């Protein structure tokens, strides 16, 4: 008979570094006790989890539920005294397990699925935290210096590097306003005629900040038209070739509490980027055309801004009319106008700011302070236009730029010809390489994606500084919009937790998912 061999306990994974009762691999213990250094490190990680876990806002895309493998669940009665209810609720969709995709939960040392790295007690505790109501960071009052945050006093001097936390919150809110415009367009892309008939709001437009109320939908029309023969032969949905499309909206802050916090009532004009074929065609018309004797702008941008549709006024006329109405409605109050856009929308925002600064000035009454927030915007006009906008109109532009975004560098200069320049103001420069969850080889589409911009903005603290440890923006949207550019550890973490963003195959022909929400599509440029 062969000698009996005692088999070691079977473990398919190394002991959890977060379990205080486990022993660091390769580190000797003293008198059977855990190594002191390992225990100290473990407690520090657990403290970080307690401090950083927060619930992200609801997602604008449907989520496919997938049952986690048996090993991913903590069995009841595992000796830790933790009930399985929070885990079951989260997996069924009631507990909001997508909160686990929050940056704060994806710690740098994670290399394997979460259940392999955490003790059952720690995992259950994390899941319980993720079922709580959102714990939003408090909004600081900016009433005393709102003009500084709006670019009026010193053009954001001293606020950008390092990035002021109040300014970060304001910029993220405006960025989410643009995401809402994208979502509304893709949920109902052929809504121009319906909304225009009643001069009302886009039916699917929902703002993420309820202190603002949308007052008017905006539509942009191209002067170009797809030839009838091309439209008939095209396999693309009708909205891709339509001449007029929903491009944004006007909203006003009507929460008196928020008005008091901000020190003024803010009117926001929100404009999305390119989404249809005629808009792409207009982008390519980069030749400069005159606005005045010296000031010139790109022909395609001006065309989209000034061309009326068959049943709607031009974008220019709609913006001026609605803003004038709101200024008269709130006459006597402290007002500000913030125009925010992404990509093409950023150039349209600059054109709108130039026009509003001129037409809202009446006699001795100046126009309300106007600022532009540009996410990934291209160059709009020549140097004379940029100087007129800042010097004569008093408009400053805050350009949020990803260093890897090629759109912010076009149109490229042509030797011995008058070139395009960016509007004057300030620049906040981000880098995709600073993100702990984006791949270092993230491509041009990711570098220009609006959600990638907002992800980087949420983590930016200053040049040469590490990504913000308590960045609270969920990476679930990033997984949906730019999944190939997200590091594999984050993608695998989502799978292990039993949730995956909608795949491209689940999107319907009109670019929206079956329930009418925006699916797995990159934010259009």
Describe this structure in words.
The chain is α/β, with parallel strands linked by helices. It has 19 helices and eleven strands. The chain has helices spanning 36-52, 85-91, 114-117, 120-130, 146-149, 165-187, 192-198, 228-233, 238-241, 256-262, 277-283, 299-306, 315-329, 344-359, 383-392, 444-448, 450-459, 476-482, 488-496; strands at 63-65, 212-221, 244-253, 265-271, 288-290, 296-298, 335-342, 370-375, 396-402, 425-430, 499-501. Helix 11 packs across helix 12 (299-306) and helix 13 (315-329) packs across helix 14. The radius of gyration is 26 Å and the shape is globular. The protein starts with 35 loop residues before the first helix and ends in a 24-residue tail after the last strand. 44% of the residues are buried.
Q: Which characteristics define this entry?
A:
single chain, alpha/beta, seven-stranded mixed beta sheet, two-stranded antiparallel ribbon, 19 helices, disordered N terminus, disordered C terminus
**Secondary-structure element order, N to C:** HEHHHHHHEHHEHEHEEHHEHEHEEHHHHE
Amount of helix? 25-40%
Number of helices: 19
Can you tell me the residue ranges where pLDDT is under 50 for at least 5 consecutive residues?
1-13, 16-34, 49-135, 502-525
Shape: globular
Oligomer state of the chains in this structure: single chain
Beta percentage is 5-15%
Major beta sheet, strand line-up: 2-3-4-7-8-9-10
Q: What is the residue-mean pLDDT, rounded to a whole number?
A: 75
Profile the largest sheet.
7 strands, mixed
Number of strands: 11
Q: Please tell me how large the radius of gyration is.
A: 26 Å
Termini separation (Å)?
Answer: 74 Å
Helix/strand-derived class? alpha/beta
Keywords: Chloroplast, Hydrolase, Lipid degradation, Lipid metabolism, Plastid, Transit peptide
InterPro entries: AB_hydrolase_fold, Fungal_lipase-type
GO molecular function: phospholipase activity
Subcellular location: Plastid, Chloroplast
């Amino acid at each position: 008979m062969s000698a009996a061999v005692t088999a070691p306990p079977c473990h398919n994974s190394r002991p959890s570094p977060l379990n205080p009762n486990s022993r660091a691999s390769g580190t000797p213990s003293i008198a059977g006790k855990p190594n002191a250094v390992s225990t100290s490190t473990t407690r520090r990680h657990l403290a970080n989890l307690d401090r950083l876990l927060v619930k992200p806002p609801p997602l604008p895309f449907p989520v496919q539920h997938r049952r986690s493998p048996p090993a991913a669940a903590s069995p009841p009665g595992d000796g830790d005294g933790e009930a399985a209810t929070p885990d079951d609720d989260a997996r069924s969709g009631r507990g909001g397990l997508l909160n686990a995709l929050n940056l704060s939960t994806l710690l740098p040392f994670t290399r394997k699925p979460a259940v392999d790295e955490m003790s059952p007690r720690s995992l259950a505790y994390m899941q319980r935290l993720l079922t709580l109501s959102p714990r939003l960071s408090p909004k600081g009052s900016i009433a005393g210096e709102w003009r500084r945050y709006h670019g009026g006093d010193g053009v954001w001097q001293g606020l950008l590097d390092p990035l002021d936390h109040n300014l970060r919150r304001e910029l993220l809110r405006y960025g989410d306003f643009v995401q809402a415009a994208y979502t509304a367009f893709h949920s109902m892309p052929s809504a121009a005629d319906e909304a225009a008939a009643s001069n009302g709001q886009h039916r699917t437009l929902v703002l993420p900040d309820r202190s603002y109320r949308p007052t008017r939908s905006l539509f942009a029309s191209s002067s170009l038209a797809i030839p009838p023969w091309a439209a008939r032969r095209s396999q693309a949905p009708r909205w891709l070739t339509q001449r007029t499309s929903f491009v944004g909206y006007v909203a006003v802050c009507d929460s008196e509490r928020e008005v008091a916090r901000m020190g003024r009532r803010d009117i926001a004009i929100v404009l999305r980027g390119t989404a249809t074929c005629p808009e792409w065609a207009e982008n390519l018309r980069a030749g400069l055309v005159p606005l005045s004797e010296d000031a010139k702008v790109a022909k395609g941008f001006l065309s989209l801004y000034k061309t009326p549709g068959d049943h709607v006024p031009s974008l220019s006329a709609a913006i001026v009319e609605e803003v004038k109405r709101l200024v008269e409605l709130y006459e006597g109050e402290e007002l500000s106008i913030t125009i925010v856009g992404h990509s093409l929308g950023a150039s349209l925002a600059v054109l709108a700011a130039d026009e509003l600064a001129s037409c809202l000035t009446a006699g001795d009454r100046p126009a309300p302070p106007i600022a532009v927030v540009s996410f990934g915007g291209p160059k709009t006009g020549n140097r004379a236009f940029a100087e007129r906008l800042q010097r004569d109109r008093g408009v400053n532009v805050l350009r949020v730029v990803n260093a890897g975004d090629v759109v912010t560098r076009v149109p490229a200069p042509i030797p011995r010809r008058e070139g395009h320049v960016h509007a004057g103001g300030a620049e906040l420069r981000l880098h995709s390489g600073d993100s702990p969850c984006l791949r270092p080889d993230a491509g041009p589409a990711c570098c220009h994606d609006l959600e990638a911009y907002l992800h980087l903005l949420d983590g930016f603290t200053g040049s040469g500084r590490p990504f913000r440890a308590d960045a609270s923006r969920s990476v679930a949207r990033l997984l949906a919009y730019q999944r190939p550019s997200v590091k594999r550890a984050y993608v695998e973490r989502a799978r292990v937790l039993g949730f995956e963003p909608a795949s491209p195959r689940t999107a319907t022909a009109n670019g929206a998912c079956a329930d009418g929400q925006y699916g797995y599509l990159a934010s259009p440029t």
